[in-house]
What we know:
The protein has 246 residues and is an alpha+beta fold. The chain has helices spanning 2-20, 32-35, 146-231; strands spanning 41-48, 53-60, 65-75, 84-89, 95-101, 103-109, 114-121, 130-139. This is Transmembrane emp24 domain-containing protein 6.
Amino acid sequence: MLCRAAPLVLLCVFWVPAHGGPVENLHPNITDQQLFWGADQYDFSVVLGAAGMECFWHFAHRGERFYLNFMVQWVTGVGQDRHLSVTVNAPGGLLVSTVDDVNGQVNFEAAETGFYQMCFNNFHNRFGSMQIFMSFGVYYDGSKDEDARKEEEERRFRDLNDTLSFIEEASVRLDRSVFHILRYYSFSRMRSSADHFLLLSSSRYVSWWSTALSLLIVTCGSLQLLFLKRLFISSRTGSDGERPRC
Length: 246
């Protein structure tokens, strides 16, 4: 009886591992394109802490174009360094691309299907954080406007760079213009005050001199009239028909 049970036990030992492990393919009749297919693209900003690192994953099929655009928007802290270290790894762990700069672009053809890893490392700033803007996605076959989307993404990235540069330049110009406006306004107020006091002084000067000249004219007229009246002396001692004599 024991001899008959031994082959059964050995059969169970070898049978269980063969059918008790995990199932690797849940849907053998469905391809990966049917499971995950779509034109995906993402645009957002993240803040990396001091010496911090953030990783993101994006799915791509073999033969498709994978793109990544990034730019450092601002940096805070002591010893600011705007450089950002970016690495892109394939699903198998192979390093596909690496960039260490303030902004950069990564564009390559996916050699295998799976999730590609993008890691952003802020090891240059150990005492400060930074905010980065990123835009990444995949261009799939069968998309009629693939080139148009790629050009649109590149244009948007260039427009963003141009916009930030324009905002910075406009802010500097605005600050300089406001400073000059305040300076000219102060000069204008000083000139207005000087003109006001000069006008008051001139008004008092004209008023005093007008009053003095008026009094002088009245006095001179009165004296002339009195002098003329004293030139003609009338004598009443004579006859009534006698004329006044000078």
